[in-house]
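We close this part of the discussion by returning to an individual protein. The encoding preserves chain order, so positions in sequence and tokens coincide. The sequence in question and its structure tokens are set out directly beneath this paragraph:

===
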Amino acid sequence: MKRTYFLLAILFCLVLAEGHSQHTAVSSKDTIAESQHTVVRRWNEILLDHIRGDFARPTVHARNLYHLSAAMYDAWAIYDDIATPHFMGKEVDGHDFVLEEFYQPIDIESARKEAISFAAYRLLDHRFKFSPEGYHLVLRMDSLMTDLGYDKNNLSTDYAYGKPANLGNYIAHHIIQYGLKDGSNEQSGYTNLYYQPINKPLIMVKPGNPDVSKINRWQPLTLELNIGQGGHVIHGTTLPFLSPEWGRVKPFAMDTTDLEIKQREGHEWYVYNDPGPPPMMSAEGNDEMSDLFRRGFEMVAVWSSHLDPKDTTMIDISPASIGNISDYPSSFADYENFYNFFDGGDASQGHALNPSTHTPYTPQMVKRSDYARVLAEFWADGPESETPPGHWFTILNYVMDHPDFVRTYKGKGEVLDPLEYEVKAYLMLGGAMHDSAISAWGIKGYYDYLRPVSAIRTMADKGQKTDPSLPSYHPQGFDLIPGYIELVKKGDPLAIADSSNIDEIKLYTWKGPSYIGDPETDAAGVGWILAKDWWPFQRPTFVSPNFSGFLSGHSTFSSAAAEVLSFVTGSPFFPGGMGEFVAEANEFLEFEEGPTETITLQWATYKDASEQTSLSRIWGGIHPPADDIPGRLIGTRVAKNVADYTEDLFFAKSKKGNFFSRLFRKFRKE
């Protein structure tokens, strides 16, 4: 079986560049035994496994990661003399997280672990007991509780006499109750309240897009079979928009200064960090925004031509050439100067030296086709993965497992106890992923923008816009680009196969899943196909995520995560100056054979990794560039809010005495 479930849990091994000529990706369980991890890490790993076994719901799981992180942090901070909790003892969004006086145990370290574990157990049991693999996942939680020596059957929330288990139950109870009124509609299975798609579904097995009515708006997809992450078949062939009203969910560190409440079709849409609208195609099709709309989706089709394993174009994918971007374009019109329209990639500067070894990064020349395909699949986080928010938690975990990693907050001061470092780092990352989801999906729901598969097939039905004197002219059609986007002519193989194809639009691009018989041995390759038959570089049971394109959730999540990791570690660089993931030849790719050779994805900084995430979505046919940059900028803004807010939490009592410090002095047991 290709890329086993175990390998999916492995993201990359961070190794010291100096003195290593060969690198391999390994699991944290290979380097550090599970029993050696803190309880915080062990519960985080269980949640990540829960997510892998659940449906692909990045918004829901960003919230789960945030709530678990907050529960564990609060269970730690309640016993601290400097930090203050996030929820407990406060009124948050109208919910009173009451915390009465109680006796403080003598063994604070033991009490923290117990309170953390009970809070985590109760919260995860509530959230996942009815998930597709809920029974097996609960068994794993039970096993951990037994291993820790705790009685899972203790349901008491009476913490007055200082019982940590009861306090953990109490924390979970309040977060669960808060979650039932935080705007997520959890009590009704996170279903939509009022969103309705304006377009009829695109039936993927049929050519073109004949039923689209609004070219700028999102369109559901009808597939013969929908398979969710973890391999679960999803009921129904047409999936609804996931979380279009998620802007209503209560945030972590954002406030009303970040929020605009907009009106559309008789409903309110809550939009945090509004970037303004994406490029829209007008009816006339001859204005600047229409040209930018057209050009962006054409770039997606052109980049799909890079996915042929027979293409011998070689590129350097080491940090010597990748990453170190200094700034981003300020308008959609500047995007073509940032992205390489024909050759792929972006305005990377590369890094001159590894700051850890003080030596140049070694170039790694690989086929562009292998790189683009691996990148698209590695960052996809669709079926059988932990979704983008969870993906960045695995990255944080591997960073903390690196032998050179030192647990100093922001890279300064004393080395922290692992439990303290992890509860703080997880809270920051969980809060950032949650606020990224609220921002990105609030924008997705309001602007309701289409995906490349809808745009490309729609423009294919329209025709070409380049020359009114040529056949198939339409102002909303494609630009003709020799070698990439052309008209089918007499004598063309596509015309010989079917003369009705004459004067249709054809693309030189990835040919699609119908050219793959056996994914163990076949690759679709690149060639001329009818544009109305175009598919993204995805499996036919997935195709595109079931929510609108603008803006990219991957770009938003990843940008925010990279900023958080840079902040909390005190360095923008991975430990040792290098983060890596090995993709084995003819093993890594899931739905076609590849890569042709073993390649190693490499990043010097967290930001470099984030930016490769963004490019992966263009090569994968999921986003045009207009979806990308706004997400990167919003992610950075989200992370700054999180850093500012958590600084106040972590050092609250060092600034002034408060309820908690007075409470523990009063009630400490002798």
Q: What stands out?
A: The CA atoms of residues 119 and 168 lie 4 Å apart. The radius of gyration is 25 Å. The mean pLDDT is 92. The chain is about 40% helix and 5% strand.
